[in-house]
Design brief:
The chain has twelve helices and 23 strands. A hairpin with an 8-residue loop joins β8 and β9. The strands form six sheets. Strands 2-15-17-16 form a four-stranded mixed beta sheet, with helices on one face. By secondary structure, it is an alpha/beta fold. The radius of gyration is 21 Å and the shape is globular. Keywords: Amino-acid biosynthesis, Aromatic amino acid biosynthesis, Cytoplasm, Transferase. It is found in: Cytoplasm.
């Protein structure tokens, strides 16, 4: 599935006829990494069933092991890997340790508030691109809580922390306008601070609201008391999470390109076990696909999406669900009328500057895209093949795959970047519509 030795990229499958697919998608990155954190500070061992095994979740597990958590795989494994058994240590971070954050926002923003419970020196670094991601809010809020953070004045990776098992916690004012993960990370570990934590946000609107709701729900499910009754304030009372025995839902943001496929190529795609209630931002794909004119049925089998390959553009604010933007932009580029995507300025601080990356790559294929302050304006035009660069961004590769269903000769540079959240992507995408896919 890797790019061929002399090939500039992975040839994206072209859909010569309507699709007919029935697929299962591995577990949610965001849920897996929240459960791993909570299980690591729980009062008893946990079992995380159907976890996502991908670069971001393996980095999270590795980080927690370095802080003394025991994480083992069960002997029996499902189609997407084994379950995880998690045993919390007596003390988090009993020895100095180094944490590799890779390019995972959840690792770089969730682990430091946990490392705050350790007096050891914990160092953090990641990929080159990770050093460009916003981190100063985490760093400043840890300092406000009394943690010593050495960052060379950069406000970014790399840095070290040195805290205390009896960190006091309490009120913290922060600007989480660049990422909801600043709030989630502090809430998850904050239950173990002496006063819990009471976060007030001051600044531009916090993006990715559903991801904060996912955090508060996960905390409540683990028995903790959370107050999110006021806008821009989230508080967790001090307490120890119960051990978990949870099954991770399929990752709906990773399912997004697969359901988009039914719309753009025409035909039907069934995603097994799509939850009827969830905090996952990816669930918003249902209403987005309806705006584009797809037919949807959600029942016990899962989500079935049917499309005709013909659909209009849309005008949509993606502030709450920014991670869906690359796939939505790909759909918009194949629509019959213009689209406007707004509310996503914060995507400039994601794996790459996603607004510039999408504008550059779509334009290279003949697309008409204007980057605005708040997002993208996309006017459909005839697209041609070429190499779509992915900038170490799994969702750029997924967007390219959606385009490739309708654009012959499209090659995806470094399709392996999808391993960040879905290592099985090339394999699953290739079977998406067999035997309907023709190249
Ligand atoms: O907490 C999480 O699991 C995530 C929160 C969001 O981050 P931002 O708020 O930085 O967009 C989302 O885009 C990311 O993929 C996962
Ligand atoms: C923004 C994303 O990831 P991260 O968790 O690294 O922020 C994403 O997966 O789209």
């Amino acid at each position: 599935m890797a790019d061929g030795p002399s090939s500039p990229g992975w040839p994206a499958p072209y859909a010569g006829q309507p699709l007919e697919a029935d697929l299962s998608i591995p577990g949610s990155k965001s849920l897996t990494n929240r459960y791993l954190i909570l299980a690591s500070i729980a009062d008893e061992p946990s079992r995380i069933r159907l976890p996502l095994h991908s670069r971001d979740t393996e980095l999270m597990a590795a980080a927690l092991r370095r802080l003394g958590v025991e994480i083992n795989e069960t002997d029996e494994a499902g189609p997407f890997g084994a379950d995880w058994l998690v045993k919390p240590p007596a003390r988090i971070g009993a020895a100095d340790a180094h944490i590799d954050c890779g390019l995972a926002g959840t690792v770089m923003r969730f682990i430091p508030p946990l490392a705050a419970l350790s007096p050891s020196t914990i160092s953090f670094d990641g990929d080159d691109a990770a050093r460009r991601r916003p981190m100063s809010t985490t760093i400043d809020s840890l300092r406000a809580l009394g943690v010593r953070v050495e960052d060379g004045g950069r406000g970014a990776l790399p840095f070290t922390t040195s805290g205390s098992p009896t960190i006091r916690g309490g009120c913290v004012t922060m600007d989480a306008g660049a990422s909801s993960q600043f709030v989630s990370g502090l809430l998850l570990a904050g239950c173990r601070y002496e006063l819990g934590v009471d976060i007030r946000h001051v600044g531009d609107a916090v993006p990715s609201g559903p991801h904060i709701e996912m955090t508060t729900e996960a905390l409540r499910d683990a028995g903790l008391v959370v107050d999110d009754s006021e806008p821009n304030r989230w508080a967790v009372e001090p307490g120890v999470p119960r051990g978990l025995d949870v099954a991770v839902e399929p990752d709906l943001s990773n399912a997004a390109p697969f359901v988009a496929a039914a719309l753009v190529a025409g035909g039907t795609v069934l995603i097994r076990d799509w939850p009827t209630w969830t905090t996952q931002a990816g669930d918003r794909m249902r209403s987005i696909l309806e705006m584009f004119g797809a037919d949807l049925t959600l029942d016990r089998a899962g989500l079935t999406v049917t499309g005709s390959g013909e659909f209009p553009g849309i005008d949509i604010d993606l502030h709450d669900v920014g991670e869906l933007t690359p796939v939505v932009a790909a759909i918009a580029a194949l629509a019959s009328s213009p689209s406007r995507l707004t509310g996503i300025a914060h995507l400039r601080g994601h794996e790459t500057d996603r607004l510039t990356a999408l504008t550059t790559e779509l334009t290279k294929l003949g697309g008409r895209v204007t980057e605005t302050d708040a997002g993208l304006d996309i006017t459909p035009s005839a697209l041609h093949g070429g190499v779509f660069e992915t900038y170490h961004d799994h969702r750029m590769a997924m967007a390219a795959a959606v385009l490739g269903l309708r654009v012959p000769g499209l090659q995806i540079a470094d399709v392996a970047t999808t391993a960040k959240t879905l290592p099985e992507f090339p394999e699953l995408w290739s079977t998406l519509a067999q035997p309907a896919l023709a190249r």
